[in-house]
């Protein structure tokens, strides 16, 4: 849920889509500006945050990457619960991933937050010669379902920042306050771990 | 890797106890002791106890804020005082609040039994962990971080054990992706390993 304080918005954003569609690569490209890079982050592979300035406000995205394997489908509601925005990702070279993406949209429409901003991303747009899903088909589907659609490439960075900016622009400006969770501050450990933990 | 691990306690709990020894803290000490006694006098009720504890923490945070001992202190110091208090109280109440309710104990036992069974046959491939990212011996490091959870009493410290386990997994996956020239790991790689490690730990 997006929460507002002055002109600062906190928004939980979840990425959904088939395994290998490029969810994690999109996030990495957006957060780190790199397609491939050795990096260290707070919880690493599954959780990032990034702040964007849009018009009169700053939007801090808390980005939750999800596992795309079918066997982990049942965990998804835990991820999209309370999300202000979702990016549903498919791979333009895989019709199967497009079918899965449409199922994700249906699930969110049924069970997600009705104010959720939904983006539909056809990733791997750089692989034109292997394309299986036309942009027209996806655009039509997105329009019919009230999503906004972009073809992206985490590899070339095409449209990656744009899709996050567009989400930030579309976020409702006032949302009810979310109960705050526990904040674990990353402090430099100046003692050995076991001593710090159990002394 | 150790150096990068989150450490919630830092110097705060000792610092907190030192402050509590100051003569002007006697009223605070009295409230803390009376809370511990009052909770211990009632039969355990996880829901009620948790609500009472949260309420007490909030009340005490207000009291710290208004107290001369914390006059001119930063938000961070006040927060660490709150952490110190939580750790102190939970340590005192530990035998009562953790696994004291028969229903909790039963649920724990059932889960433990199930996990012991799963432990015996689970293989990385069953969880869709890709071959390039399979390295059971290195996951022992992550298991070690998670195992510490039983030695910690405060909820925050328990969470830090989980966080550290996640960090170790993330670093191992990153290293594996670099050596095998794979794409950088995302949730597709991370979640199955976290589940595998959680199942394999001997608690």
TrEMBL record, chain A:
For this UniProt entry, what is the primary localization, expressed as one broad class? membrane
Q: Which CDD domains match?
A: Rab5_related
Q: List, in alphabetical order, the Gene Ontology terms for molecular function in this entry.
A: GTP binding; GTPase activity
Q: Name one GO cellular component term.
A: cytoplasm
Subcellular localization, as worded in the UniProt entry: Endomembrane system
SUPFAM superfamilies assigned to the protein according to its UniProt record, in alphabetical order: P-loop containing nucleoside triphosphate hydrolases
Q: What is this protein called?
A: Ras-related protein rab5
Record's family? Belongs to the small GTPase superfamily. Rab family.
What does the organism's lineage look like at the top?
Eukaryota, Viridiplantae, Streptophyta, Embryophyta, Tracheophyta
Listed under GO biological process in this entry are:
protein transport
The record's keywords, sorted A to Z, are: GTP-binding, Lipoprotein, Membrane, Nucleotide-binding, Prenylation, Protein transport, Transport
> How does this protein lie in the membrane?
Lipid-anchor
TrEMBL record, chain B:
Q: SUPFAM superfamilies, alphabetically?
A: VPS9 domain
What is the name of this protein? Vacuolar protein sorting-associated protein 9a
Q: Which Pfam families match?
A: DUF5601, VPS9
A cellular component term (GO) from this record? Answer: cytosol
Q: Read off the PROSITE patterns from this record.
A: VPS9
Say which domain of life the source belongs to.
Eukaryota
Organism name: Thalictrum thalictroides (Rue-anemone)
Q: Which residues form the VPS9 domain?
A: 105-203
Molecular function GO terms recorded:
guanyl-nucleotide exchange factor activity; small GTPase binding
A Gene Ontology biological process in which this protein takes part is: vesicle-mediated transport
């Amino acid at each position: 849920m997006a929460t507002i304080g002055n002109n600062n918005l906190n928004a939980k954003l979840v990425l959904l889509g088939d395994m290998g569609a490029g969810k994690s690569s999109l996030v990495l490209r957006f957060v780190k500006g790199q397609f491939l890079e050795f990096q260290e982050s707070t919880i690493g592979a599954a959780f990032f945050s990034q702040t964007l300035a849009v018009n009169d406000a700053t939007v801090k995205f808390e980005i939750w990457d999800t596992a795309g394997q079918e066997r982990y489908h049942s965990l998804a509601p835990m991820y999209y619960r309370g999300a202000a925005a979702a990016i549903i990702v498919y791979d333009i070279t895989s019709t199967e991933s497009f079918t899965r993406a449409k199922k994700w949209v249906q699930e969110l429409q049924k069970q997600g937050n009705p104010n959720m901003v939904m983006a539909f991303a056809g990733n791997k747009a750089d692989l034109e010669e292997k394309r299986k899903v036309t942009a027209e088909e996806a655009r039509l589907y997105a329009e019919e379902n009230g999503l906004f659609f972009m073809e992206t490439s985490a590899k070339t960075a095409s449209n990656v920042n744009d899709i996050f900016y567009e989400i930030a622009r579309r976020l409702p400006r006032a949302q009810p306050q979310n109960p705050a969770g526990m904040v674990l501050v990353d402090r430099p450990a100046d003692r050995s771990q076991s001593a710090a933990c159990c002394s | 890797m150790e150096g990068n691990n989150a450490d919630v306690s830092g110097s705060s709990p000792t610092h907190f106890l030192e402050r509590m020894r100051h003569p002007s803290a006697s009223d605070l000490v009295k409230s803390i002791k009376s809370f511990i006694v009052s909770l211990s006098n009632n039969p355990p009720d996880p829901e009620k106890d948790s609500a009472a504890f949260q309420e007490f923490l909030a009340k005490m945070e207000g009291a710290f804020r208004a107290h001369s001992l914390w006059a001119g202190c930063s938000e961070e110091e006040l927060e660490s005082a709150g952490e110190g208090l939580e750790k102190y109280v939970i340590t005192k109440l530990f035998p009562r609040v953790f696994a004291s309710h028969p229903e909790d104990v039963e649920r724990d036992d059932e889960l433990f039994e199930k996990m012991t069974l799963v432990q015996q046959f689970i293989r990385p491939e069953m969880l869709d962990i890709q071959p390039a990212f399979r390295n059971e011996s290195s996951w022992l490091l992550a298991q070690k971080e998670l195992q510490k959870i039983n030695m910690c009493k405060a909820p925050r410290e328990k969470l830090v054990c989980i966080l550290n386990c996640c960090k170790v997994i993330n670093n191992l996956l990153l290293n594996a992706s670099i050596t095998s020239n794979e794409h950088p790991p995302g949730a597709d790689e991370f979640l199955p390993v976290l589940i595998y490690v959680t199942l394999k730990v001997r608690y």
